[in-house]
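If your schedule permits, I should be very grateful for your opinion on a structural question. I would ask you to consider whether the tokens describe a fold that such a sequence might reasonably adopt. Thank you for your consideration; the sequence and its tokens are set out here.
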Amino acid sequence: MGAVILGAGISNDKSVMGSVEHAILAAKECLKIAKVDAEDVDFIINTGIYRENNIVEPAVAMLIQKELGMNGDYVKAANGKDSFGFDLLNGGIGALNALKIADSMLESGAVRYVLIVGGDSHPSNSEVAGFPYTTLGSALLLGKGKDPKKGIQGSAFRSKQHAGQGRMSYIEMTKVGVSGRQSMTITTDKDYVPAARNLAIELAKDYITKNKLKSSELQLISTQLSEDFSKDVAKSIGVSPESSLSLFAKFGDVHSAVFGLGFHQLQSLKRAAAGTQVLFVGAAAGLDAGVVHYVC
């Protein structure tokens, strides 16, 4: 049985600058919509890459888990329940990897609910010129489906070597002095966006053909590396403009939060009725691309 999305939440409060706080707020909205208590969630996956103060340890997923009240004792909480989680760091397609993992965990029967959160912020917790991502949080709650024709139906991933990896981020330790925890340098190759787009299109086309899907029946939620990215992907794989979510003009590139935001928007627009087929298509540095097929 495919894992089903029980709720989607976002946090877009401009007064909030940190990705961790945005993820917490999005998760709270998500759980409220799904009518599931935090202590009943067994598993949390954080897919955010850029976080305040360049936090490395502990896993940001654990910080979010604590603030949500998700059974913080990893051995056994006082209520007899336990939860666990981790950070899954794979750039703009990390959430697609997380969906695949959630599907497997739910299918195994090891967990009842999986919470996936994402969001990125500059480590200085401020707006910095040249930082390519919009600070916004999103969350998806998944549970085990009962109908094999609904929920996650399949996924595919592909990597391709690219000079410079497309986009790289690092801390220039010899230059930042004592402000390393608030610093980040990001470089982007000139051909990164078209190269990433082409890999995503190639993978999506192959998935559609292999699984005999009808492009005209799909709703597309894709990475938003540029204003035309989703439009170009939709046109290339045969999805109509009306069935493709263009989020860049309103939200910019929200990076790891894009698929949670996209599904939330799809629901808000009343385009996620039962039986609706959704194709999540992602592209990231590396180059890497991912596809997840979902039926509402």
Notes: The radius of gyration is 18 Å.
